[in-house]
Design goal:
There is one protein chain. This protein is an alpha/beta fold. It has nine helices and ten strands. The protein has helices at residues 46-53, 77-83, 100-111, 124-136, 152-164, 182-195, 208-214, 232-236, 239-246, and strands at residues 8-17, 20-30, 35-39, 61-66, 70-71, 85-88, 170-174, 200-204, 218-222, 225-230. The protein has a six-stranded mixed beta sheet, sandwiched between helices. The longest helix has 14 residues, at 182-195. This is Urea transport system ATP-binding protein. InterPro entries: AAA+_ATPase, ABC_AA/LPS_Transport, ABC_transporter-like_ATP-bd, ABC_transptr_urea_ATP-bd_UrtD, BCA_ABC_TP_C, P-loop_NTPase. It comes from Rhizobium halophytocola.
Length: 248
Amino acid sequence: DLKPKSLLYLDGVSVSFDGFKALNSLSLVVEPGELRAIIGPNGAGKTTMMDIITGKTRPDEGEVFFNGNVDLTKLDEADIAQLGIGRKFQKPTVFESHTVWDNLELALNRERGVFATLFYTLSAEDRIRIDEILDTVRLTGRRNDLAADLSHGQKQWLEIGMLLAQEPQLLLVDEPVAGMTDAETAETALLLRQIARTRSVVVVEHDMGFIRDLGVKVTCLAEGSVLAEGSIDFVSNDPKVIENYLGR
Ligand code: ADP
């Protein structure tokens, strides 16, 4: 039984919208400390799966467990975020008129429910934590620059840093490298691998070069369930994956 030792456990998850089955008996198991890549054609159910995990959408059927025994289908979005599940949407939502440092400070304080944010004094530990995050997301040299002046890729990294301030056990990342330069894309693969040393990460992406760089287990979804799962070579040579996704 995989449930007790998995960080994320989905089994037989189905959900329909107006009679259309967006997820059809989907199963997915993510281990603690695992980085997992999710691929699949548009409409495969990737976003719906993320919505189920974060509590935005309720499944009609199936099990969704976190940390072995926490039933996510019984919790609302705010409780699930509090448990340590962070989600990064495709479009970066940083505070453009604040510096990189202040964005991270705001994220750290938001985690504590301090909305007076910048008036709240940071402890020495907080400063060390922000320095560590800056280093992880490759923005140490940009700490005093306005977020607005960052490249698109750097804004994505800053937003990942803002999520790290909340110390998630599981980070869900939606199409991080869309619109990035080749150099930023390659750096993002390294960055996510680094982050996954201390937490689990599930990343949805279409960029197959990036997926290959990640070098991790890949799950290909189609029509709301798992079409193939395994190494990138295994999955990309699967005739069903070629027919439904790669060959299109
Ligand atoms: P992906 O992220 O893989 O492109 P989605 O999860 O966004 O796939 O969508 C799966 C299917 O479910 C699509 O056909 C989409 O139109 C449908 N769908 C998703 N969310 C809703 C919703 N809230 N209402 C109606 N249909 C939806």
